[in-house]
């Protein structure tokens, strides 16, 4: 995004205000009104934050993606300020948690499966395959945003979905569908083909999947180069996966 590294904490606080409002106001976990109040206030702050930066990029173009949003033309049209702010908001929410949450799941799995971890350490060339397989296995975004059926539909198993019905697709279930994966409950880094849908599908398929894959691969590569042996800290073996995006709360690892 071309944003200053020193502002990472601010960006994470803004992200938490939307995704974890109870960190700002503990009452928000049980009270929807309080939850909405924190989210509204944070939303305003996010739009103001990016508004200031866009003003600056207009005055001093920087060659980063934010400058690109301002100058890009599609069929002779430019994005409006509101559209750019909406995109910035979505990037902040969609881009920050997904990758770090995926990594908590990946590291929890690898800490408990030394034979898988060894494959990565001994042959880093397996990392791209390992990332795909762990994305399939963990499905960090377990389900999509609800959709509404536009026409009467019959699913392959005969289930009827009437037009107008709200539908939530479970990517997690699809990723262990035996019709697609003959051995769905085996975690195999050499799985080919691996047509998982951890990034969704169709027009709303994840826009950040290429960046996410790169971040996940690089993290596994650099971590295992430096820290090949690790495990769950004794006393912290009971892992908690809170609802929402799949992640491990307070993952504690130790290494020699
Ligand atoms: C491992 C990490 C990630 C996973 C598992 C993931 C997963 C997903 C999924 C499943 C969707 C579709 C949601 C639906 O169908 O309702 C989605 C949408 C989206 N993702 Fe990701 N994502 C990841 C990382 C990222 C990153 C790093 C970015 C941006 C930098 C990003 C940006 C987006 C955006 C903008 C959309 C909305 C696309 C649209 O509605 O047209 N994602 N993501």
What does this structure look like?
There is one protein chain. With 256 residues, this protein is mainly alpha-helical. The chain has a domain at 1-79. It has helices at 8-19, 32-59, 65-71, 81-112, 114-122, 127-138, 171-174, 209-226; strands at 73-74, 77-78, 147-148, 153-154, 160-161, 166-167, 231-232, 253-254. A two-stranded antiparallel ribbon has the order 1-2. A two-stranded antiparallel sheet has the order 3-6. Helix 4 packs parallel to helix 8 (209-226). The model has no long low-confidence stretch (mean pLDDT 95). It binds protoporphyrin IX containing FE (HEM). Protoporphyrin IX containing FE binds next to helix 4 and helix 8.
List the helices and strands and how they pair.
Blueprint: H1 8-19, H2 32-59, H3 65-71, E1 73-74, E2 77-78, H4 81-112, H5 114-122, H6 127-138, E3 147-148, E4 153-154, E5 160-161, E6 166-167, H7 171-174, H8 209-226, E7 231-232, E8 253-254
Antiparallel strand pairs: 1-2, 3-6, 4-5, 7-8
Bound molecules: protoporphyrin IX containing FE.
Protoporphyrin IX containing FE (HEM) binds at residues 90-91, 94-95, 98-99, 102, 140-141, 144-145, 171, 198-200, 204, 206-208, 211-212.
Outline of the structure:
This protein is mainly α. It contains 8 helices and 8 strands; from the N terminus they run αααββαααββββααββ. A hairpin with a 2-residue loop joins β1 and β2 (77-78).
Small molecules in complex? protoporphyrin IX containing FE
Please give the largest β-sheet.
2 strands, antiparallel
Mean pLDDT: 95
Share in β-strands: 5-15%
Helix content: 40-55%
Uncertain spans: none
Shape: globular
Task: Please count the helical segments.
Answer: 8
What structural class should be given to the helix and strand makeup?
mainly alpha
Total number of strands: 8
Strand arrangement in the largest pleated sheet: 1-2
Distance between the termini: 37 Å
Please trace the helix and strand order, writing H or E for each element: HHHEEHHHEEEEHHEE
Radius of gyration: 21 Å
């Amino acid at each position: 995004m071309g944003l200053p590294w020193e502002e990472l904490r601010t960006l994470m606080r803004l992200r938490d205000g939307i995704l974890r409002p109870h960190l700002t106001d503990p009452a928000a976990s049980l009270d929807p009104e309080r939850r909405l109040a924190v989210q509204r206030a944070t939303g305003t702050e996010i739009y103001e934050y990016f508004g200031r930066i866009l003003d600056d990029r207009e005055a001093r173009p920087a060659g980063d993606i934010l400058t690109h949003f301002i100058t890009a033309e599609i069929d002779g049209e430019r994005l409006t300020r509101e559209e750019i702010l909406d995109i910035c908001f979505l990037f902040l929410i969609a881009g920050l948690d997904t990758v770090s949450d995926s990594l908590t799941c990946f590291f929890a799995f690898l800490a408990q499966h030394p034979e898988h971890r060894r494959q990565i350490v001994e042959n880093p060339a397996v990392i791209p395959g390992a990332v795909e397989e762990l994305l399939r296995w963990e499905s960090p975004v377990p389900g999509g945003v609800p959709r509404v059926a536009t026409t009467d539909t019959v699913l392959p198993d005969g289930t009827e979905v009437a037009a107008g019905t709200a539908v939530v697709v479970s990517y997690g279930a699809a990723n262990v569908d035996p019709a697609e994966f003959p051995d769905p409950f085996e975690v195999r880094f050499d799985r080919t083909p691996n047509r998982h849908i951890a990034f969704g599908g169709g027009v709303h398929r994840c826009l950040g999947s290429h960046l996410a894959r790169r971040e996940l691969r690089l993290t596994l590569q650099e971590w295992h180069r430096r820290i090949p042996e690790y495990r769950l800290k004794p006393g912290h073996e009971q892992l908690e996966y809170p609802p929402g995006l799949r992640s491990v709360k307070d993952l504690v690892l130790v290494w020699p």
